[in-house]
Amino acid sequence: MAGMAVSRDFWVGRRVFLTGHSGFKGGWLGLWLSQLGAEVYGYSLAPDTQPALHQNARLNECMAGEFADIRDAGHLVRSLQAFRPEVVLHLAAQPLVRESYRTPADTYATNVTGTLNLLEAVRQCDTVRAVLVVTSDKCYENREWFWPYREQDALGGHDPYSSSKACVELLCASWRDSFLRERGVALATARAGNVIGGGDWSADRLLPDILRAWDADETLTLRYPGAVRPWQHVLDPLHGYLLLAQALVERGQAVAQAWNFGPDSQGTATVGEVVQAMAGLWPGEARWTVESLGQPHEAGLLTLDSSRARQLLGWRPRWGLPQALQRTLEWHRAWRDGQDMQQYSRVQIAAYEGENQ
Q: Which helix (H) or strand (E) holds 121?
């Protein structure tokens, strides 16, 4: 089964406030929303990588927006009230585990206080009907067991990043129950797995690390080759976010809860297996080594149960791990060849949508 398709009729002309639009997932979501005909306003810091998807895909041509700090509560309120959106999609975050060890206070300030600022701004904007806050699969109390985590499982987090995302989940549940439900605002949270795709140049992520090393004919260094993760192409969870945001507007509090968007079992693989699969696709020499000593703690085993999204939203992952890796590499090659990456990204979105009809 192909799963539910995103409704173009719903999104055409819909006013959407998108935080984190300068990032990897936010950039792809901004492109998709503009392709659906939505009126999008982006709010985020300037891109912190070079290259960056925001520039490569020329997102400034597709949507309005500004570079501003989610921690600046007053500025955020003014921007939200000026745009007067109906839907708010919150992706702005400090998204890296290893960075959270280096800057724990900043991680909490961005992820927790930033979300608090957004929810308080929503309370002061009478046009908002739906809010989707993107957290992480790492928000669960990881017991290193083989069973996939369900939305009702305990929250936790060893590292500051994971803990901050668990805090965001608790924050959202409280603001939903204490303030937003009575105002008729439907608030949901979304937890996705390890997302891959073209245009991600973040530090300390496997696919960007692979591409940087092998592009430069260098040896890739792996920290935890045996770590098991749920890998998925970026368009799979974004498809889920769009379906969920649509449901929040149309069905309200009935879907205002936490949701997992993870891959099928075939998308669950070790870091080492992903590297080997990429090496099989790489046109040149692909070398790697392992350096595990002295590394900070990261989860060893983590998978998600997405039954709720399948049954209640009609969502299903479409691109398994082999296709996700192939699509990522194709995007990277197109970028290296100097192609129009806005157009190329739109072609990949259209191809994904075509498989969901």
A: helix 114-123
